[in-house]
Structures are given as C-alpha cells and as structure tokens.
Amino acid sequence: MSSRKGRRDAARVVREQIAREKRRKRTLWTTIAAVLVLVIAGGIGWAVYSSQKSDDFTAPPGANDAGTGIVQGTGPVTIDLYEDYLCPACKQFQQINGETLNQLVTEGKAKLVFHPVAFLNRFSTTEYSTRSSAASGCAAQGGKFREFTDQLFAKQPPEGGAGLSNDELVDIGAGVGLNRDEFASCVSDGTYRSWTEHVTDEASKAGVTGTPTIKINGSELRDRSPEGIRAAVEAAGK
Amino acid sequence: MTVTPSPSPAGRWQTLRPWLGVAARLGLAAVWLIAGGTKVGDLAASGRAVNAYQVMPYELATVIGAALPFVELALGLLLLAGLATRVSAGISAVLLVVFIAGIASAWARGLAIDCGCFGSGGQLAAGETPSYLPEILRDLGFLALAGFLLIWPRTPFSVDGWLAGDDTVEDTDE
C-alpha cells in the first residue's frame, strides 16, 4: 500500500464523515418538520370539529327529559327507535313495523321514543339527514311529529343525491296540517339543528352505531319483525 | 452506486427500484389523501366511526375522529412531496397496524360495523354483513407499500432527494 493511496483514503474517510454528519442533521430536521406537520394537522382537525360543535340546544316540545327523542304514548315499556330519514333500511323498517308500533302505543303497552339521528349526512349533498331531522323537531313543535315522520319515509329521497329541499319539506309539513308559515321559518332558521346534533351524539354515546336500531327497555332487539317487537314488549311489560 | 451496464438481475433491480419507490410513495400518498378526503367533510361522523369500534370512551373517540382525517391528509401530502419519506412511511405503517388491529378486534368481538376506512364508517344497514377480511387484506397491501418505503425511502422526484442535492454517497439512509 503506497502512502499516497493512504492519504487519499484518509481524505475520503473525512469527506464521508462530513457527508454523514450533514445527512444526520438533514434527517433530524426533516423528521422534526414532518412530525410537526402531522401534530399541527391533528390540532387543526380538533379545532375545526370543536368550532362546529354547539353545546346548547333547545329540545322541541314532546321530547323526553334528556332531549334525545320525541315521545309518543305513556305505556310502561319504553321502545327506543333510532332512525335516519335518509336510511333505506329505516324506511323498510317503518313499512313493516310502523303499524305494530302505533298499536302498541295506542294500546297503552309501550311508550315510543323516536330518535331522529343524522348519521348519513355524507350520503346526501345537502346534509339532508340533519335538515330532515331538524324539520321533524319543527313538526313536533306543531304537534305533528308522527305524521311528518311517516310522510318523510314515504317520500324518502335516494342516497347520494340532494335529498328533499327545504321547500319540499315545508310542503310535506303543510300537507300533514302544520301551519305553513311557522313551520317554514322554523325549517329555514334551522331552529332544531343543534338539537339534531345532540340527538345524534347521545345515540352514539348510547352505543348506537347503525340505523334502524330498536331498544326495548334499553336493550337492543335483534328480531326486527312485528311479532318479535310485540313479543319483546309483552315480555318486558310483565 | 452500482454502474452495471449489463442487464444482470441485480442491475435490473438497481434501475427498477427507484421507480418502484416512486410508485409506492405516490400510491401510499393517494391512499391517505383519499382516506382523509372522504372523512374530512363530516368530522362528527368520523368520530362516530371511531366510536363504533368500542375501544375507547366516546369523548376520546370524537377527538381521534376529528384529528385523524387531517393527519391522513398531511401524511398524504408529505408522501406526495417526498419529504421525510422514511418517517412518513414509518408513521403510515404504525397507523395501518393500528387500523388492522382495530378491524381484527371488531371482527373477533363480533361487532357488525363498517371499518370507516374511506368515509362511510360505523353503521351498517340491516342485513349488510361486514367485510373484515377484504379490509384487512387491503390494509396489509398498503402496509407493504409503507414497508418498501421504510427500507428504501429515497425515490426520484422527492423533496428528500432535492435537499440531499448531489451528495449521493450511500443515499440509502434518510
């Protein structure tokens, strides 16, 4: 090994060391930058969500004490029904079980608490789930919650579109006997939007992850047939 | 630095690898941008999707659910730019492992939920069955992309490469 080559090698080692040090620093700074970007992004998400959230709400007349749903009837057994007006399975559920539920209420066997949750806002371009639920609060104010709900399911728009417009909601409301002007201003002001948010949040907290969900005295019912519901109510009422 | 003009297998790998790296980087970037983008419009729903896994209190789930879409978008942008690729790939891998664990645990516990991976989370319509296995396999595929970038983070057209400039001596550790 010549000394000349030795010197060249030594110089190369030093150069490599300097380069390695430069790389180490660069890696450190880009790492810090990347982690900062991610942390800030997460913080922005939380801030945006917090600013969207409203803490106070006014429950419409006819709501339960917790303000999480509209009550029909006074029976000893409590039926909690969680539905989204945009959910096709809910429409189907209403067609199959609506009659039975009404009977149980009028027979005085059960109290029906209807929770109009807005789970499916992403499936319409206009937040139809929230708008229709808030409108149902307006209908409750006018004492026509059940009639309005039945009509909303009967005229349910398809998922993925714009849903029914506020004007169409007002037409439906007027059609079931609500005062058009009062109802229209309630719908366009979004009076019960924060209530809808409360209903939806509380449903999630109660472990409801899908619609329709039906609970009899607090426990979820898997058999969603008229017979199943009736049997569960009879059993719970004993 | 291998200068092999002959198309030996090793040489082919050397010419192919940077392009596979770009594909992995952009692919993973697309995954995060789409995953974040579909969730960012409805942060409350994102929180509900997290809550549906029933692994944390509701309040915490809403925080995670609100932060996650933005973190996913940021990860997507970092990968798209090729900035701190190894770190971004590492964090991607950690997130994916957490997601896979979450889906697997939902499966094991018999929960009937949608993974919420690309929006539409939490609830399943009646009669709809969860598709846990395809979701897990898909996430494993994404994990493979992240793994590739963890091992070989340096790719063409990246900010990392631009920052490194001409100092290309052993350009494998970044």
What does this 3D model show about the protein?
Chain A has 238 residues and is of the alpha+beta class. Chain A folds into two domains: 1-52; 70-237, Glutaredoxin, CATH 3.40.30.10. Chain A contains eight helices and five strands. Chain A has helices spanning 3-52, 88-106, 128-141, 145-154, 166-175, 180-189, 193-205, 226-237, and strands at residues 70-72, 77-83, 110-116, 213-216, 219-220. In chain A, strands 1-3-2-4-5 form a five-stranded mixed sheet. In chain A, helix 2 packs across helix 8 (226-237). The longest helix of chain A is centred in the N-terminal third of the chain and has 50 residues, at 3-52. The radius of gyration of chain A is 29 Å and the shape is elongated. Chain B has 174 residues and is an all-alpha fold. Chain B has one domain (20-164). Chain B contains six helices and no strands. The longest helix of chain B has 32 residues, at 9-40. The interface between A and B is large, with 45 and 51 residues.
The count of helical stretches of chain A stands at 8
The fraction of residues assigned to DSSP E strands of chain A is 5-15%
What is the assembly state of the chains in this entry? heterodimer
CATH class of the largest domain in chain A: Alpha Beta
Order of H and E elements of chain A? HEEHEHHHHHEEH
The overall average pLDDT of chain B, rounded, is: 86
% residues in beta strands of chain B: under 5%
Question: Which regions of chain B contain 5 or more consecutive residues with pLDDT less than 50?
Answer: 167-174
**Alpha-carbon distance between the two ends of chain B:** 16 Å
Biggest chain pair interface: A-B, 45 and 51 residues
As residue ranges, the low-confidence spans of chain A are: none
Radius of gyration of chain B: 19 Å
Largest sheet of chain B: none
Q: Please state the CA-atom Rg of chain A, rounded to the nearest Å.
A: 29 Å
Mean pLDDT of chain A: 93
Number of domains of chain A: 2
The 3D shape of chain A can be described as elongated
